[in-house]
Amino acid sequence: MKKLLITALFLLSAVIVFAQENIPLIDVEGTSEISIMPDEAIIHLNLMEKAMKVADVTNALNKKTKSIEDALKKTKVKDYDFTVDNYYVSVNRVYTKGTSRDSGYVASQTIKVRVRNIDKDLVKITESLHQTADMGFNIQFNISDNVHKSSEQKLLELAIADARSKADIIAKSLGIQNIQVHRVNYTSGGNNLYPVMRQAKTMMAMDTAESRQEPTFSPEEQKLTDKVLVSFTFKR
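Above: the chain's sequence. Below: its structure in token form.
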């Protein structure tokens, strides 16, 4: 009796698999794309100091970081984030003519400033950095998480509409009258974007307030994308 039950279950599963494999399908990938202007900028500064002792190099790095933070506070800009990470201390190894010698220590860390109002505040922030930091920095224009989330529904709706349009064209070309959704596969793998980087260099020794002009920024639109896989079935 047990063997008969197992055999019956096996035959039933085989019938179901066979039936599923013989369902006529039209598989399409719907895609979507929208262009959005960046609404925030992220400024990256890489700080580095050298000294003969770990305590000295750490103090020098902290002093430089504090001077940048204080300078940004003086701009009166409120809507920005100031974060410090990637702190690292290593031996300053100098190589000369195939030999090496240790000469104190090198300390480095990364400062990241996220500016949310690029039209109003970005010039003030960059001007402050030009006057304070003796190094170059990168500016990356981004689309914020809030704009990402608000765009998700529109992107998905456009992707689904694109899938339906493609399936209708295929069905019409093949003389199929009616199609129905059989399966939808959506993993939210889209929303790709390509941040735009800009480089800026400070010129504290050479530049003066009279000769330097305020920086101008004109970020390009960035693209958000999404996709969905839809299977449509129809009667033979």
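The longest strand covers residues 80-96.
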